[in-house]
Amino acid sequence: MRYLVLVSHGTLAEGMHSVLKMLGGDSPAVRHCCLEDGMGAEAFIENFKKTIEGMNAEDEIVLMGDIQGGSPLTNAMNEIASAGMLPSTIVFAGMNLPMAMTAFMSLAAGDLADLKACLVDDARAGVTEIVLADDEDEDDL
Shortest CA distance to 68 belongs to which of 4, 8, 128, 5? Predict the structure, then answer.
């Protein structure tokens, strides 16, 4: 089975999971774990262990975190490695909703290499500057 696991500071991962449920339905293959304000690393690690409960080395994991080098993503990677699941895991930092949606919609399709390329493309395409028109161009909106 393939899983999408979202981790973050604050409640970003929980919020993104909520949006995925709203747009695509609930799935036991999508999980999240948040390092909430005032929570120590040990508490996050215990929560993360519960998040990946039932997963094993035969499963594939798409792990997305908010910040590269941040403690949620670093601790999640350490726990996945300790569980022997790192070889079947792809990891992304700087998650955004378009890439999470692509991962969610592709959980049952294709191989990890194809999914990885698609997620990088969607992440880049998801960041777009919106150029605002000045008052003179208001009719063009």
Answer: 8
Question: Which residue has tokens 């997963």?
Answer: 55
Distance (Å, whole) CA 106 – CA 85: 20
Burial of 71 (0-12, 13-18, 19+ CB in 10 A): middle
| Residues making up the chain, counted from first to last | 141
- Read off the pLDDT of residues 6-29 as tens digits, 9 standing for 90 and up: 999 999 999 999 999 999 999 999
**Is the CB of residue 66 less than 8 Å from the CB of residue 73?**
yes
SS (H, E, C) the chain: CEEEEEEEECCHHHHHHHHHHHHHCCCCCEEEEEECCCCCHHHHHHHHHHHCCCCCCCCEEEEEECCCCCHHHHHHHHHHHHCCCHHHEEEEECCCHHHHHHHHHCCCCCCHHHHHHHHHHHHHHCCCCCCCCCHHHHHHC
**Which residues are registered as beta bridge partners of 2?**
60
Task: Please state the pTM of the whole predicted model.
Answer: 0.88
CB 17 within 8 A of CB 30: yes
